[in-house]
Every structure is written in C-alpha cells, then in structure tokens.
Task: inverse folding
C-alpha cells in the first residue's frame, strides 16, 4: 500500500497497513538539516529579502530541488500539502520600489509602512501602516462584478514541479481558490466589530469573497490532487472570535458554498486547517463538508482523546504531537507524546499522526527525528 492509498483508505475508514503520517508544513531549519544545505523553502525571511532584491530565479531553483530531495529522504510522510510550495512571484519579476533598510532588522517603504524582523517566527512583518485604519468600505464596492485579473501561471512553478514529482505516489492536499468566510474588514478589532455594527456590509463582503475565490478555483485546482486543502483561523485558545450562532448565521453558508464550488472541479476530499479552540465550531465544519481536521491545539478543550470520542465517527483527526514539545521538549517527551496520541486516537482508524500545528521554526532536529522513529516503531501496531 503506497502513501496515496493509505490516506485514502484512512479517510474512507477502510483498512490500512499503518496509521498515516503528515506534517501540514515543515519550516526551513528542519528541511535544511535533512537535506544538508540551506534552503529557501519555508524560509520567509530569506525569501522576502530575495524578492526585494530581484533574485526570483535563484529562489525558485532552490525550492524545486529542495522540495524533491526533502520528501524523498522523509519517505515515511504520506501527505504533502500545497503549503510546502507557496506561491512565488511571476517569472521575470523585478520589484519596482522595494523597501529600504533603515536599521538592523527594520525596513520602510515609500508609503511609510515599516517592516521588522520577527526572529521567533522567522518572518518580516508590517509593524506600522499609516493607511491601515483610514480605509472606508461601502456596499457598492462589494456588489460590483468580479473581474480581477488572474495570476500569471508561473506563480505556481514550484507547486507544479512538486506535483510532477509526487502526485502519483503521495497523497496531495492541494491548492484551491481558498476560503475567507470570516471576512475582517479593516483588521481584527475593527472587522469583528463590523459583524455587530454593519452586518449587511459584512455579508456583502463575504459574498464577494466567495465569488472571487470561486473564480480562482479554475486557475489553482489541479486534477491530479487528492484533496482540497483549505484554511482559515477563526479562534483563539479561549474559543471562537465570533459566537457559534453568529458564525452559523453569517459565515457557515459561505463555507458550504465554497466546498460545493471546489467539489464541482473533482471528487476531492476536504482537509481543513484552523488553529485555536475550535471545539464549539467543529459540528459546523462537519456540516459544511469537512472530512479531515488539522491543527489540534494543545489545550485541554482540544484534547485528542476527547475529540476522538466526540467527533471521531464523523471527522478524521490529523495531529497529536504538540508543537511545543517539538520545539522545547526532549526526544523522550516527544516519543511519549507520539505514544499517547497513537494510544488515544489511532484505535478504530480515522486518525493521521502529525504535529499539533506544523514542524515549526525552532523545532529541535533530534526531536523531529525522535518523532519519526517512534512513529515508525508504532505505526503498524494500532
């Protein structure tokens, strides 16, 4: 049984030769250790600087070689997501007016936006945007026909290279036009307030988002993929940012619509990533058509044994190994986490082992290897 067959059988609750394994994504420090060289894959700082400096082709060639080398070496991994080969600038890209460096780890562009290096997450983020709170939204702009230009096909050059290498043997959770069913106009705080103060404006924005993303499906969806991988973070560790009742009223119809639109392109499984304490929304995810839920936060409310008990007959759970242990634990604590997850969630099937989020930046290499080794020791016993 190859990886593709193994995951398909798991999702359809048929017999498998072992519990499947998947990562969601792997950051560049772990990839570099595995392949023995630095990489631009999931290297958000290195890539951003390279884009600003016009080094697109150098980055793309690195990514194409490194994604193939990494997953050929890590042949225990059954699932590859589109996140491992994110969109890139189009071929021939040269930035017209890139930000200038104004201090160590700090940049500013001509519009006054300030960017800073976040070493914890290994990314360059906008920390000041003078226009962020000035934008005004109107119903009229959300009711105009959607005629946004489609991207240049070369933005998927690395993604298509990955598919050529692995689509026949690995289970691919691939690209779609995406989902954005909880639209936040003007940012988090202002956007959440708008659900109460301007509900019709929010409904119009959600409807336009659905149409924009439906239009993008034909560009992004490849017939060789096994699953549509969609993601949207809706919750903190305390719970949903909208009440479950408001989410059902204003967001769930759009989610159902998007899944139906995606499935009009093929009989794809639906894999959904959403961080935080999502327990109060899981029933609605299932109702929308989600089959596989990934990103099982390491908090009491999302304890994997309880999730398996309450939702395991209707939802495939993907996760179990706390990212906190991979980053800050020891090989022994990681092995214990693998054993506990397998004991609680693997019996009866419907479980994919993986990190609670991802193989995040800062993961200790010995912990990553301990996870693989303990999984390999136990995978066919559950």
Result:
């Amino acid at each position: 049984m190859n990886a593709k067959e193994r995951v398909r059988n798991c999702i359809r609750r048929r017999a498998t030769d072992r519990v499947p394994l998947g990562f969601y994504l792997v950051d560049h420090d772990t990839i570099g250790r595995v392949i023995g060289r630095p990489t631009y894959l999931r290297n958000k700082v290195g890539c951003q600087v390279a884009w600003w400096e016009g080094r697109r082709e150098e980055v793309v060639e690195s990514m194409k070689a490194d994604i193939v080398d990494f997953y050929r070496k890590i042949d225990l991994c059954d699932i590859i997501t589109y996140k491992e080969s994110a969109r890139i600038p189009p071929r021939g890209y040269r930035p017209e007016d890139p930000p200038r460096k104004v201090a160590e780890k700090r940049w500013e562009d001509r519009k006054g936006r300030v960017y800073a290096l976040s070493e914890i997450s290994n990314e360059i983020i906008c920390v000041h945007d003078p226009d962020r709170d000035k934008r005004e939204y109107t119903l009229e702009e959300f009711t105009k026909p959607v005629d946004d230009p489609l991207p240049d096909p070369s933005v998927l050059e690395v993604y298509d290279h990955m598919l050529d290498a692995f689509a026949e043997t690995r289970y691919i959770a691939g690209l779609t036009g995406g989902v954005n069913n909880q639209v936040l106009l003007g940012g988090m705080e202002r956007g959440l307030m708008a659900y109460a103060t301007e509900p019709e404006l929010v409904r119009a924005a959600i409807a336009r988002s659905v149409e924009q993303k439906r239009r993008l499906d034909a560009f992004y969806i490849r017939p060789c993929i096994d699953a549509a991988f969609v993601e949207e973070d809706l919750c903190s560790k305390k719970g949903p940012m909208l009440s479950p009742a408001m989410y059902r009223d204003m967001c769930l119809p759009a989610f159902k619509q998007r899944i139906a639109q995606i499935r009009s392109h093929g009989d794809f499984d639906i894999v959904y990533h959403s961080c935080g304490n999502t327990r109060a929304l899981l029933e609605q995810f299932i109702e929308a058509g989600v089959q596989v839920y990934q990103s099982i936060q390491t908090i009491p409310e999302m304890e994997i044994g309880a999730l398996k008990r309450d939702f395991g007959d209707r939802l495939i759970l993907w996760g179990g190994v706390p990212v906190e242990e991979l980053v800050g634990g020891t090989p022994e604590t990681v092995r214990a986490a693998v054993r506990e997850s397998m004991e609680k969630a693997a019996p009866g099937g419907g479980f994919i082992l993986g990190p609670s989020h991802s193989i995040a930046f800062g993961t200790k290499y010995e912990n990553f290897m301990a996870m693989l080794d303990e999984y390999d020791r136990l995978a066919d016993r559950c």
